[in-house]
Amino acid sequence: MTSLNKNLKTCSKGHKFYKNSDCPTCPICEKERKPENGFLALLSAPARRALESNHIVSLQQLSKYSEKEILKFHGIGPSSLPKLKAALEEEGLSFRD
Ligand SMILES: [Zn+2]
């Protein structure tokens, strides 16, 4: 019967965290949800491999390339581009050119 743990919450992944408000957002999950290379998860496996084999694992690195250069990578199809563009825009970035 201690009041110490009244704000200790456990998220669905088992992270324990303290929160004062009713907001159930887990700060650990929050961080994990926004990894720099999260955009890779949006892509098909061949497209992801294409970027990784060109050492593009972050949006910052991706923004150093133009659309044309990206399309030249083996495995990247035109359907990958809108996803990449959207991911870049979310971070305030864009393709070169
Ligand atoms: Zn969590």
Give a quick summary of the entry.
The chain is mainly alpha-helical. It has 5 helices and 2 strands, in the order ββααααα. The protein has helices at 27-33, 45-53, 59-62, 67-72, 80-90; strands at 8-10, 16-18.
Q: Could you characterize what this model shows?
A:
The protein has 97 residues and is mostly helical. It has a domain at 38-90. Helices cover 38% and strands 6% of the residues. It has five helices and two strands; from the N terminus they run ββααααα. It has a two-stranded antiparallel ribbon with strand order 1-2. β1 (8-10) and β2 form a beta hairpin. The chain is elongated. The chain starts with 7 loop residues before the first strand and ends in a 7-residue tail after the last helix. Zinc ion binds next to α1. The site of zinc ion has 6 residues, from α1.
Q: How are the secondary structure elements laid out?
A:
Layout: E1 8-10, E2 16-18, H1 27-33, H2 45-53, H3 59-62, H4 67-72, H5 80-90
Antiparallel strand pairs: 1-2
The protein binds zinc ion.
Residues 11, 13, 15, 26, 28-29 line the site of zinc ion.
| Radius of gyration from the alpha-carbon trace, in angstroms | 19 Å
Number of contiguous helices = 5
Main β-sheet, in a few words? 2 strands, antiparallel
Spatial separation of the terminal alpha carbons: 63 Å
Question: Helix proportion of residues, in percent?
Answer: 25-40%
Strand order of the largest sheet: 1-2
* Percent in strands: 5-15%
Query: What is the SS-derived class?
Result: mainly alpha
Bound molecules: zinc ion
The unreliable regions are none
The tally of strands reads: 2
* Overall geometry: elongated
Mean pLDDT: 85
* Element string (H = helix, E = strand): EEHHHHH
